[in-house]
TrEMBL record:
Protein name (database record): Thioredoxin domain-containing protein
Listed InterPro entries: Thioredoxin-like_sf, Thioredoxin_domain
A Pfam short name: Thioredoxin
Highest taxon in the source lineage: Archaea
Coiled-coil intervals, chain numbering: none
Length: 195
């Protein structure tokens, strides 16, 4: 009896450890854009694909208090680099740092949008995190309907694996995937999808 319990605990612990290690492993190079969702009407009032309605959902910038949507940012003409994150996620902070590094070498070439999709976090927590780390861009705690919309477009793993990276460019929404993408990889991905 004791042996069976010990094995169950050991197997459960090993499975948990493997899951954590898998989540912590950062992807360096996407082999290709993992999912490209065409959005020919991104500049129109209503997107033709109802699965992309989340691009129109208003968010409040945690630092400035201004309202914005991904669609509004995309209409400014620059590529939009979206990262999902949570304030407790070290890989997310590393990802935002990589994008920040790329932005300092190529200012005004794209816009960063950080979306905190942890339902237990709020605008104040996001604001403190962004001000502490001094990231540039637009950052917000995701409204529930935005998270649901993104999960509807990209699948359930989108909300379970952090960070996720999405590029909006040339009227398309491009999901790069989860994990850490280095600055050079992001630069290559932007060149690929925005060509």
């Amino acid at each position: 009896m004791h042996n069976i319990r010990y094995r169950r605990v050991l197997i459960t612990g090993l499975c948990f450890f493997l899951i954590l290690m898998t989540m912590a492993t950062a992807s360096e190079q996407p082999k290709e854009v993992s999912k490209v969702v065409p959005n020919p009407d991104v500049n129109a009032t209503q997107p033709s694909d109802p699965g992309l309605a989340w691009t129109k959902i208003p968010m409040t910038d945690a630092v400035t208090g201004e309202q914005f949507s991904i669609d509004q940012i995309a209409k400014m003409g620059k590529p939009v680099l979206i990262h999902t994150f949570a304030v407790w996620c070290p890989t997310c902070s590393m990802q935002l740092g990589e994008s920040e590094q790329m932005l300092t070498t190529s200012p005004d070439s794209f816009t960063i949008v950080g979306i905190d999709i942890d339902p237990n976090e709020n605008q104040n927590m996001v604001k403190k995190h962004i001000e502490k780390e001094k990231y540039a861009g637009h950052f917000a705690a995701a409204p529930k309907e935005l998270t649901r919309g993104m999960v509807g477009t990209f699948g359930t793993s989108f909300a379970l694996e952090l960070p996720q990276t999405v590029i909006v460019c040339n009227k398309t929404v491009n999901h790069l995937g989860s994990g850490l993408f280095r600055a050079q990889t992001l630069k290559s991905a932007l060149s690929q999808v925005c060509a």
